[in-house]
Design a protein that fits this description.
30% strand, 8 helices, 13-stranded mixed sheet, 23% helix, 295 residues, globular, alpha+beta
Length: 295
Amino acid sequence: MRKPGAPFFLFLCACLTLFILQARPSSSQAIEVKDFDYHEGSETGPGHWGEMNENWAACKDGKDQSPIDINSENIQVNQSIGSLITSYGISHAIMHKSSHGIIVNWTEGAGSLSIDGKAYVLEQCHWHSPSEHKLFGERYPLELHMVHRSSDGDIAVISIMYQFGPPDPFLFKLMKFVAILVTNDVVPAGLVPPPLMEIGCPYYRYIGSLTTPPCTEGVTWSLIQEVRFVSKKQVRMLRSAVHGENNARPIQPINGRTIFLYKPWAPEEHMKYFDRENLCRKSSILKWLLCHRHH
């Protein structure tokens, strides 16, 4: 009997490969889940994120979730955590629109944040409106998240709050691309410098989570104390790109966590300075007069 030749075996291998690929779902199909939303009471809203996917269980069962309300009851002044050390540089970026917001992804090295000697590379930034965190019970019109990742996968986020006022310089440079994203999903943004960080600026530090599924915990949060300005037009543009949707997760329980406050000066009897803290957050002028001038 004549033995099958090489062409027959090649044909057989091709058929087997096709059968296996058709029988097994692709990796994207295997992990595909229904998209989440921010509507309270919705089957896919924040109250049900942890039930939508077994990998999102932390959204429901996690004890160190974000966002939280930064308030004086849980704050300890701690200079030992040190000033925010950032080394950012201008780098190419791509802006794209997800179903819940606008994201700036740096495609090259845009610099890093150093925490306890560990480098976290800046990967992307995005906005939430209204703000996700609260400062002393107040929710602001906008919050920026600058997401950094270390070589071993740990995540650190710098958060900046905004109140209505003059246009934000960082957003001002990006508004023409935001306008394009109203009708497009992706746009090259060219060279984009990250937002400037003031050397020695006071900030709040706590350990929390991602504010979107899978709500991964162990995230190091640094919330800049000074509330910056953004124009109403800029916020409208950001929201219009995602059809005006709210994209802020509800406040999560603190569960006994301590919030550390770093500031260049730290009086021993710091609790009596919290009224002063609030004034500093509200006004750049008062911030200069009360927080940066020593008497």
